[in-house]
């Protein structure tokens, strides 16, 4: 009898299961052929969780061969990967519209259909590897970790959290030129995750893993409101959204999710879907439950400061309270017993998950801050356009330019560029969109600077509009 | 035990009481905080010669080849992320923990 040669784990390929890139690329393009993911002519997708613009016509031009680096996380290819991966992950969850299922029944069948499942099975591991391999290169966890050193490490973190007084998110909202808009933008970023509250965590509800499983379940039932729908955390979040005039159905604001918000949401699915990453998830969960306590307290105060007493902050108050318990429960009832039960060899995984969650949260926070700053500066970026355009005209070294002629109502689904761009209107009128219900009108002879990695879209408001996109690379170069 | 946080771009040497550690990497991604004292006679391994292919550091005192795998097994628990590193080192018993930017040769540069 012949036995297969055993290959030590660290000598095996770390590539996704399907090693042939062309197979992946074909499957991705085939996945994108569905109407569910095609461009649409509205900014919002109301009460249809299956329809998500992915700009699939661009798939064939994108290269996912080489995993992202830390510096490439906010590029267009990354945004596409994140939008697609979340769509794939969420096909594991039950999503139903509130109303009129009959007219959406075909969408439901397609979203969960065999074709999507088969293609998704090939595409998902590639996109996971593409998006998250950078974590291995960015965070190094090494050395001889013991229970004592892990305790010391986390105690130090807890002490730091207790000392923390600053909250960059809250400060950004209050300092914005339009705090109410910035706050709504923040709420809709979080909606992608919070309206499906704990769905990623719920992936760990099944199985057989002893007392840890029961402890995980206690946290889960808190999140789910003990079966009382009004107290579900997602119900509380719906209340927060509605109180400030936002829709509360999942992914209504799909087009306005920043790539980093999607990346963070994807991460929790990434570590929860594959149970080989369970110990990493424990670390990430501990980080999230702990950091959320102070954040939610500040968010409740800040939202009240901005919107007054009409804003519903129950979601944030609930988390400011219950996450104190959850932080303790994850640490005392899950992490410490897990180390006791499975040995100190799992500690590097726990620490890694903790650090990864922290890093991705920091990246998402900074991306949000940068987006608010860019959107707040719309008038400034518009004012620079004529001079930059003149400098381009005079230059012997002209940047690459693409001309577009589009009819009234043509909507460019939101996207980002990997370098600075100048959008310049030759004729007609364009509404240039920098966020939900935030835009600047551009007429012939006007334009705006689209900063690298900033999310934007556009809609044509004249019978026809001719405009140029100049790939200027770095805006400063064209200002002198 | 004590936790120390430092900028790995500038500081690569940690002193906790009578223990000394240095930051070392063979690939630029995974970093280890290794004991600086050679297990032979206590020579300064941070000034030794790294051979990443062989997985050794040659001690500058007696030219002994010290296995990286052994050093890494006993390395201080360490996390390195962009711009900062955090290590857990033995409590120096009231003495300060110092971190400095002295020359470290036994690492990929």
From TrEMBL, chain A:
Gene3D superfamilies: Heme oxygenase-like, Jelly Rolls
InterPro entries: Cupin_2, Haem_Oase-like_multi-hlx, RmlC-like_jellyroll, RmlC_Cupin_sf
CDD domains: cupin_SznF-like_C
Domain called Cupin type-2: residue spans: 407-464
Pfam families, per the entry: Cupin_2 (PF07883), Haem_oxygenas_2 (PF14518)
SUPFAM superfamilies named in the record: Heme oxygenase-like (SSF48613), RmlC-like cupins (SSF51182)
Name this protein carries in UniProt: Iron-containing redox enzyme family protein
Source species of the chain: Polyangium fumosum
């Amino acid at each position: 009898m012949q036995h297969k040669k055993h290959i030590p784990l660290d000598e095996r390929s770390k590539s996704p299961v399907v090693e042939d890139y062309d197979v992946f690329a074909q499957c991705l393009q085939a996945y994108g052929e569905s109407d569910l993911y095609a461009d649409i002519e509205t900014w919002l997708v109301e009460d249809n969780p299956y329809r998500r613009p992915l700009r699939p016509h661009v798939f064939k031009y994108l290269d996912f061969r080489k995993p992202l680096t830390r510096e490439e996380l906010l590029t267009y290819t990354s945004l596409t990967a994140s939008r697609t991966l979340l769509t794939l992950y969420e096909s594991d969850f039950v999503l139903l519209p509130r109303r009129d299922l009959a007219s959406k029944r075909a969408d439901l069948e397609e979203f969960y259909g065999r074709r999507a499942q088969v293609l998704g099975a090939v595409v998902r591991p590639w996109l996971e590897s593409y998006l998250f391999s950078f974590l291995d290169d960015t965070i190094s966890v090494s050395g001889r970790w013991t229970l004592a050193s892990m305790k010391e490490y986390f105690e130090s973190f807890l002490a730091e959290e207790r000392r923390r007084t600053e909250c960059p998110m809250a400060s950004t909202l209050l300092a914005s030129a339009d705090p109410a808009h910035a706050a709504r933008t923040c709420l809709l970023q979080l909606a992608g995750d919070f309206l499906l509250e704990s769905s990623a965590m719920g992936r760990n509800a099944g199985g057989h893993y002893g007392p840890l499983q029961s402890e995980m379940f206690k946290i889960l039932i808190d999140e789910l409101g003990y079966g009382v729908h009004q107290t579900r955390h997602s119900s509380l979040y719906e209340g927060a959204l509605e109180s400030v005039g936002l829709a509360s159905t999942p992914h209504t604001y799909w087009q306005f999710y920043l790539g980093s918000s999607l990346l963070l949401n994807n991460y929790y699915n990434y570590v929860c879907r594959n149970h080989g990453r369970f110990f990493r998830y424990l670390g990430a969960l501990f980080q999230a439950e702990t950091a959320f306590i102070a954040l939610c307290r500040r968010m409740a105060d800040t939202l009240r400061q901005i919107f007054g007493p009409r804003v519903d902050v129950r979601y944030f108050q609930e988390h400011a309270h219950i996450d104190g318990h959850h932080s303790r429960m994850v640490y005392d009832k899950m992490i410490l017993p897990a180390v006791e039960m499975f040995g100190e060899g799992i500690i590097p995984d726990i620490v890694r998950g903790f650090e990864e969650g922290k890093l991705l949260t920091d990246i998402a926070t900074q991306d949000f801050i940068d987006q608010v700053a860019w959107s707040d500066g719309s008038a400034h970026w518009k004012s620079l356009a004529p001079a930059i355009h003149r400098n381009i005209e005079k230059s012997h070294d002209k940047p690459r330019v693409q001309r577009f002629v589009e009819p009234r109502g043509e909507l460019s689904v939101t996207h980002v560029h990997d370098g600075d761009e100048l959008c310049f209107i030759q004729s007609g009128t364009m509404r240039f969109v920098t966020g939900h219900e935030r835009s600047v009108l551009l007429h012939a002879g006007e334009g705006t600077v689209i900063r690298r990695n900033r999310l934007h879209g556009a809609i044509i408001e004249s019978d026809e509009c001719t405009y140029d996109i100049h790939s200027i690379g770095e805006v400063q170069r064209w200002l002198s | 035990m004590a936790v120390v946080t430092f900028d790995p771009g500038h500081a690569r040497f940690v002193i906790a009481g009578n223990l000394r550690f240095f930051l070392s990497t063979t690939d630029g991604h995974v970093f280890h905080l290794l004991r600086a004292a050679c297990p032979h006679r206590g020579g300064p391994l941070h000034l030794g010669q790294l051979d990443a292919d062989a997985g050794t550091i040659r001690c500058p005192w007696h030219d002994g080849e010290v296995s990286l795998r052994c050093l890494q097994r006993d390395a201080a628990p360490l996390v390195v992320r962009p711009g900062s590193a955090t290590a857990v080192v033995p409590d120096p018993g009231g003495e300060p923990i110092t971190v400095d930017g002295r020359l470290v040769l036994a690492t990929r540069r």
